[in-house]
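Dear U.,

Please find below the material for section 3 of the report. The protein was modelled together with S-adenosylmethionine; I have listed the sequence and SMILES used, followed by the predicted complex structure.
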Amino acid sequence: MSDVQYDDFLSRIYDEAPYFGRERARELEQYNAFYFAHLHDKSRRILEIGSGTGMLTVPLARAGFLVDSVDISSAMHEVLAEKLSAEDESVARRVRRILADATTHVGEEPYDTIAMPEGVVIALPSRELQIALFESCHRNLRVGGRLYADFAQPRWKVVYEQTLQEHTRFRMHSGDEYLLSVTFRNDRHTQIEEWDVVFAKQGVPPEPIEVKVSFRFLSYSELQFMLERCGFKVIAIDVNHSHGRGFAVIAEKV
Ligand SMILES: C[S@@+](CC[C@H](N)C(=O)[O-])C[C@H]1O[C@@H](n2cnc3c(N)ncnc32)[C@H](O)[C@@H]1O
C-alpha cells in the first residue's frame, strides 16, 4: 500500500471522487440553494464550519458574503486557498481561512450566522463529539443568531445489510483513472458507519491507496433533541433536502 497521506490525497481528489464530493460538485447550485435562500446580510461575517474544499465558501464569497472558514485539515485549506487564488482578489479577500478544531474553536466575535455545509456533523463519529460541535456553535453565536447545516442521511441498503461492498471507476480531469472499492460497515447500535475505501490508480504498476472514514448518522428526533439540549430552538428541519439525500437544519440560539 502507498504511504500517501490520507488527508492530503483525499483533499486533492475530493471534488471528483464518487461517494465523496463528486455528487455535490456536480449539483452545487442545488445543494447550496438552501444557504442562498436564507443568508442575506453581507455586512457581518458568517462563520463556516467544515469548509473542506470550499464548495460553499467560494460561491458565498463570489456573492459578496464575508466568510470565516474553519476546517481542521490543512490539506483541505490548501485546496481552498488554491481555488481562492484563481478568483478575483476582491472575492479572495472576503474569506479568512482558520485552521482549527471546530469543537473547541472560539471565534473573535459572536456571529449572527453559522453555516455547516455537507457533512461536518456526521463526520464526527461519536455522540459526544457531535454534541461538542453543537455546543461550540452555540458559544460562537449571539443570542438570536442562527445555525444552518446540511448533512446526508444513511443509505438504508447499508443499514439493513450491515456490510456492503461496491466498486466503480472514475476518471479525473487530469486524465488519471481510478478503480474505487468501498466496503461499508454499519453498526445499528452506535449508528456509526465505517467506510474502507481503496483507490487503485490504473496504470503500471497499480498503486492502491487506502482511506478509512467514519460517519455517525443522525435521526430527526435525535438531531432535535441534541440541538435543544445545546440551547437551540429548532426553526426547521427539511428531511427532503437535495431530493431526500439529506437533512437541512435551521436552529436559533435562545
Ligand atoms: C464531509 S467533509 C465536507 C466538506 C465541505 N463542507 C463540503 O461541502 O464538501 C467534512 C469536512 O469537515 C472537516 N472537519 C472534520 N472534523 C472537523 C473538526 N473537528 N473541526 C473542523 N473541521 C472538521 C474535514 O476536514 C472536512 O473538510
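For the text of the report, you could mention the following: The domain at 6-154+216-253 is CATH 3.40.50.150 (Rossmann fold).

Regards,
Y.
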